[in-house]
Amino acid sequence: xxxxxxxxxxxxxxxxxxxxxxxxxxxxxxxxxxxxxxxxxxxxxxxxxxxxxxxxxxxxxxxxxxxxxxxxxxxxxxxxxxxxxxxxxxxxxxxxxxxxxxxxxxxxxxxxxxxxxxxxxxxxxxxxxxxxxxxxxxxxxxxxxxxxxxxxxxxxxxxxxxxxxxxxxxxxxxxxxxxxxxxxxxxxxxxxxxxxxxxxxxxxxxxxxxxxxxxxxxxxxxxxxxxxxxxxxxxxxxxxxxxxxxxx
Amino acid sequence: xxxxxxxxxxxxxxxxxxxxxxxxxxxxxxxxxxxxxxxxxxxxxxxxxxxxxxxxxxxxxxxxxxxxxxxxxxxxxxxxxxxxxxxxxxxxxxxxxxxxxxxxxxxxxxxxxxxxxxxxxxxxxxxxxxxxxxxxxxxxxxxxxxxxxxxxxxxxx
Lengths: 248, 157
Fold this sequence. Notes:
Chain A is an alpha/beta fold. Chain A has 10 helices and 11 strands. Chain A is globular and about 55 Å long. Chain B is built from 4 helices and 7 strands.
């Protein structure tokens, strides 16, 4: 029975082949049979975690608390120099210049990624906006959020900052950024479950050194970043505490 | 270690008062009416030990407090205590986190230069192996309406 590896459903579609290549690399390097199973929603992923059907996961910070504190997962690595940040944007012609100019009753396009949504709502809170006085429209892609803004169907869009930066220049030229978060300490983490816990140290070592050879460097690049860096247990606990604090 | 505030650090016209702080500490504070706006998009994060002594601060904390990191680490968190904050708010904070619960509130913080900044603060106990080992405080930009409510409410407490 192979171990099950999954990637948080909010991965960028352009990196999909990269995760399959990475899984192949991981199997060869660890000498373990590992199956990459991708879920198309956070709900399905949550059910798989609950049913102990996940052994390795590139996890959204929102899922980290359950994985570490209820399911006994341990952190391995995070992408070097990458953190989860959100952007609040409006149509270029929209009269608001900052969050304080927004008023209750506005329609907000939100992504399904729970960490980005949460950071976005936290940014909106500075303008006295909350789940009770906005109309939320959940969108399953950032392109769709941009489209809703450009068509005037929503007042505000909440984006994963990296996804916003990857929008075409034409699209971005028609939008206006009101605020970009600069939190720095919230990030996705590659985590290992109890069934593979005995392999933690050597898999972690393989990951942090994988950019030191040409093949490994190519594989990690296909995921959209340059290297993996170690995540210590306390760093993970700190991030979970932080998420906890931001969720209220 | 926390010292009385010094005139040489103060920017602008100031008033002087003595604060009686948690744990029997007394501090001369000098404060002005100059507000530093909370920076958009940032979080101010710090960790203290269980007695409230600062063990970690992030860059935004250093920037907003106007102290250096070296001045902050090892000082009681009350180094930020502004005389306009009612003592009852901090009693409530400690009572709440000592029960292992989260505390949230709007706080006017005092800068080294005598100015101030408002935050929405959340303080959570850090529980490791079932024991509270430290506290993390996360501050975000507060809504102006809530701040104005606090400006009216706090003097009455």
